[in-house]
Amino acid sequence: MPTPFASRANLRLLIPQPPALPADFRSGVPASTASWVLQVFIRGPEAGGQPLPSTTPQVRSLSGYITAWAVLPAGTSWLAAASAFSWDTTGLAPTGLAAGLSGRGFFGDLSALPATSAPAQVGEASITGLFGRYGTGGIGAELRTRTGDAIDVELQVPA
């Protein structure tokens, strides 16, 4: 069942899946073979164009909730229309997604994709927090099933 925020998603992320560590490094470090596409609802005044505290004007600190995710199909642009993906709409993060992973981000009207015209912003994205301040147990577990996983992202856009 989709989260209550699914229709309001306004951030799409492309995050390469981290490679599995091999038991024997003599065979080399495997390359990542897939990427996740996440749709996120960014909440609060930072989503409405208010000035944000940051070290440079090009960095936006965003907080919200995961609404859906999919594995990027081969030969498909991560900015393709939503119908190009097989979405998991539970709002829960895919297994292996963690703070510290980086990729690309698109902040704007997701229903207009694949068009990426202004005032949309496209840039480098880093996940700075995942699961929210209540953790994964207790009240955090209760909130996760209703809202999806909380996520914090830094989006750096070119000046």
How would you characterize the overall build of this protein?
It is a single chain. The chain has 159 residues and is mainly beta. The protein has one domain (6-19, 31-156). The protein is 6% helix and 31% strand. It has one helix and six strands; from the N terminus they run βββββαβ. It has one helix at 139-147, and strands spanning 11-16, 35-42, 59-71, 102-107, 121-130, 150-156. Strands 1-2-3-6-5-4 form a six-stranded antiparallel beta barrel. The longest helix has 9 residues, at 139-147.
- Structural class call reads mainly beta
Termini separation? 39 Å
The largest sheet has its strands arranged as: 1-2-3-6-5-4
Query: Which word captures the global form?
Result: globular
Task: Write down the overall mean pLDDT.
Answer: 84
**What portion of residues is helical?**
under 10%
Count helical runs: 1
Q: Please state roughly what percent of the residues sit in beta strands, choosing from under 5%, 5-15%, 15-25%, 25-35%, 35-45% or over 45%.
A: 25-35%
Cα Rg: 16 Å
Domain unit count: 1
